[in-house]
Amino acid sequence: MTAAVLIDNVTKQYAMDGETVHALRGVSLEVPYGDYVAIMGPSGSGKSTLLNLLGCLDRPTSGRILLGEEDVTRANDDQLSEMRASRIGFIFQSFNLIPQLTVLENIEVPLHYQGRLSARDRRRSRELAEMVGLGDRLKHRPSQLSGGQQQRVAIARSLVNDPTFILADEPTGNLDSVTAEDILQVLGQLNQSGKTIIVVTHEPDVGKRTKRIVRLRDGMVCADERPV
C-alpha cells in the first residue's frame, strides 16, 4: 500500500543576509498509514521547515514529498491549496479558531474552503463534536470554552474532511498538564481508530505517547526510533 507520507531526499535552502542557509539536508522519511510519529529536535534542527513542507505551505529546494500518490513538488499553487483543504488535517498550538463562529461552525470551516456543506457534512460535523465531547457546546463560541475544549474543536475540525493524515504542531503547548494529558488521550484514541498522525513537538512527554520518534539535528534525521 502507498504510504500516507513519503519524504524522499528533501533539501530546503534559504537565502539570508547574502548567505545560504541549509535548513534541511537530504531528509528521507516514510510514514505508513496508521502510524503515529513525533518529529523532535532542538531549535534550528529543521522541525519548523519540515512542518511547513508537510503542510504544503512551502516547497522543497530538491527531493520529493508525496501525500498518498500525490507529488507535492509538482503541484501548482491551486493544487497545493486543494491538498491542504482535503488531504491534511491541521491542529495548531494556538487552536486557530475563528472567534465569531460557534463550535459547529468552526468544525465546518474546511468544508467551506471546498465549497460544500451538505446535510451529510453537517451531520458528520455534529458527530465529530460528539466524539470529542462537545456535543452540548455546539452553539458556544471560542471565548466561552476552556483551552482544552478549544483544542478539542480544533481536533474535530482536523477530521471533518477525512484527511490522509493529521499534522499537529505543538498541540499541547498552550495547555496545563492535566488538560494536555486529556488531549493526548484523544489523539491516541484517534490513532487507535486508524488515523495517521504526525506531531511536531519539543516535549518529551508528547513523544513518549507516539509509536515512533524521528529526531532532527542540523537539518538531518539523526535518529528514527520506535519506543518499546
What would you say about this model in short?
With 228 residues, the protein is of the alpha/beta class. Helices cover 33% and strands 28% of the residues.
State the main characteristics.
alpha/beta, globular, Rossmann fold, single chain, 4-stranded antiparallel beta sheet, 28% strand, 33% helix, 228 residues, 6-stranded mixed beta sheet
Helix and strand topology:
Blueprint: E1 5-16, E2 19-31, E3 36-40, H1 47-54, E4 62-67, E5 70-71, H2 77-86, E6 88-91, H3 103-113, H4 119-131, H5 147-159, E7 165-169, H6 177-192, E8 197-200, H7 204-208, E9 212-217, E10 220-225
Parallel strand pairs: 3-8, 3-9, 6-7, 7-8
Antiparallel strand pairs: 1-2, 1-4, 4-5, 9-10
Give your account of this protein's structure:
- This protein has a single domain, classed as Rossmann fold (3-Layer(aba) Sandwich).
- The protein is 33% helix and 28% strand.
- It has helices at 47-54, 77-86, 103-113, 119-131, 147-159, 177-192, 204-208, and strands at 5-16, 19-31, 36-40, 62-67, 70-71, 88-91, 165-169, 197-200, 212-217, 220-225.
- The strands form two sheets. The protein has a six-stranded mixed sheet, with helices on both faces. The protein has a four-stranded antiparallel sheet with strand order 2-1-4-5, covered by helices on one side.
- Helix 3 (103-113) packs across helix 4 and helix 4 (119-131) packs across helix 5 (147-159).
- The protein is globular.
- The relative contact order is 0.20.
